[in-house]
Amino acid sequence: MGFDTRFTLGLIGWVAALAVALLGCVAAIATPGLAAARIIALCLVVAALAGLWQHVTRTNRTLARFVEGVRFGDTALRFESGGGASFGRLGAAINDALDRLRQAQDRSAGELRYLDALVDDLPVALLTVDEAGQVALANRAARRLFTAAHGRRTEDFAVYGATFARRLAAASAGEELLILNLDGRSQRVLVRSALLERLGRRTRAVSVQPIQGTLDAVEMAAQTDLVRVLTHEILNSLTPVTSLADTASDLLAEPDLPPDPRIADARSAVATLARRARGLGHFIEAYRAVAQTPEIRRQRFAAAPWADELARLFAAEFPEIPLARDVVPAGLALDADPDLLAQVLINLLRNAAQAVAGHPAPRLALRIAAERSGASIEVEDNGPGIPPALRQEVFLPFFTTRASGTGVGLNLARQIVVAHGGAIEVGDAPGGGARFRILL
Q1: What DSSP assignment string belongs to 166-201?
Q2: 59, 129, 139: which is closest to 91 by C-alpha?
Q3: Can the peptide bond before residue 329 be classed as cis, meaning omega within 30 degrees of 0?
Q4: Nearest alpha-carbon partner for 25 in 46, 6, 10
Q5: For residue 289, what is the DSSP state?
Q6: What is the pLDDT of residue 236?
Q7: Burial of 392 (0-12, 13-18, 19+ CB in 10 A)
């Protein structure tokens, strides 16, 4: 890979020009009285030397600039082999190699952009913890989930749970089910951590997947299956009992039986048994509604008019109990099934009205507010409240604390809310009483 023809001809030309300039300079010096010619001849010699040096070192300068550009990662530059520089074939080979390198870099950059977008769009929150204990929210799901922490240290995440902060600070990998305080309520999450090597440094990747909604849905499905099986088996056993009781009641009602007081007692007992058996059958048939999964027909609707209609229905049934209504912001829209959600609120308002019955100054409130990840609906009363030990049981099928209660309303309310992908919980109202909160 020797010198190219253009460089060689240029070199010969500059050497010849230098030789001519030297001969002219010698002749001018040897001839007396040619002082001006001597100066011109010396200038020509200097110019020829400069031109020859420029021509010889051009390749070195071009190569030095090229190597400097490559050192800084500029693969868009070209190796300029023209203008008299040598190594033309070398320049062509280097330019071809640069083209291939640039194509490989473009592919790598495209793959990296794809992976970045894939990680950022993952539905599971992803965090990274470096060797210094600095935490970074690695994707959009993590940034949506962890908004209360205003620092990057592991201890800053204790606002979500002390156990979670310790898990972030731990140096080991593993999987754990934790309870975190997210969106103002306790939620079960699955936390997985793994150790990674990145550029010679160890990093831990921690994924956080909320599973409370899934657990709620599984629990509701198990309850409905249990109710379905129980009602089916009880009805199968109750049907012949009802039939035999009716038959016995008819037999004991025949007029030709001897007038025995014991027969009258038996007749009354069997008639009562038949009545209760039929009543229990109707009761179980009615409870089969608990075993039917509600069909959600979602639509967007304005929250304020919907709340006004609920308030009017409540006032018609309980005119003596004041109901405060608040929707923030005023133009808030809900994405839900308005009919099923209204049934949930009617049940909650009725329960609240019954809880404040007999209170000297009953107070109820219905609040609907926009949340960071959706909307919240609260029903609050100033009744006796619900003891902490019963706050999970009140949503179970057939559980009730009232003699006239059926234990179905709150369970159906939870089924409807869970079918919406939301959650319902009960706690203490700020002024005393109970507060049911629905998160959609």
Answers
A1: HHHH--S-EEEEEEEEETTEEEEEEEEEEEEEETTE
A2: 59
A3: yes
A4: 46
A5: G
A6: 65
A7: exposed
* Cα→Cα distances 305→90, 170, 319, 321, 338, Å: 79, 51, 20, 21, 11
Distance CA 225, CA 248 (A): 35
Dihedral, 413, 306, 366, 321 alpha carbons, nearest 10: -100
Tell me: pLDDT of 438 over 50.
yes
Give the DSSP letter of residue 257.
S
Q: What is the pLDDT of residue 304?
A: 92
Query: Does the structure show a pLDDT above 50 at 203?
Result: yes
Find how far residue 67's CA is from the centre of its chain.
47
Per-residue confidence (pLDDT) for residue 81, from 0 to 100: 58
d(CA 220, CA 226): 10
Domain 121-210 has CATH 3.90.850.10: no
Q: Record the tokens describing residue 235, joined without a space.
A: 């009805």
* Closest C-alpha to 325, from 339, 340, 315: 315
Closest by CA to 161, choosing from 138, 172, 145, is 145
Alpha carbon dihedral 17, 22, 28, 29, in 10-degree steps, equals: 170
Quick one: pLDDT at residue 2?
A: 47
Top mean-pLDDT range of 27-41, 202-216, 256-270, 301-315 = 301-315
Whole-angstrom distance, CA of residue 292 vs CA of residue 295: 9
pTM: 0.56
Using the CB atoms, write b or e for 155-181: b if 16+ within 10 Å: ebbbebbeebbebbbeeeeeeeebebe
Give SS3 for 406: coil
For residue 131, CA distances in Å to 92, 135, 168, 196 come to: 46, 10, 12, 11
Section 416-432 average pLDDT = 86
Rounded Cα gap, residues 398 and 410, in angstroms: 9
User: Going by DSSP bridges, is the β-strand pair 174-182/185-198 parallel, antiparallel, or unpaired?
Assistant: antiparallel
End-to-end CA distance of the chain: 74
Could you tell me which CATH number the domain at 299-439 has? 3.30.565.10
Helix, strand, coil shares of the chain, percent, nearest 5, are 55, 20, 25
For tokens 């809880």, name the residue. Answer: 355
With beta carbons less than 8 A apart as the criterion, state whether 83 and 54 touch. Answer: no
Which has more pLDDT, 153 or 75? Answer: 153
The pLDDT tens digits for 177-187 are 888 888 777 78
Sign of CA dihedral 401, 403, 404, 406: positive
Q: Over the chain, what is the mean pLDDT?
A: 79
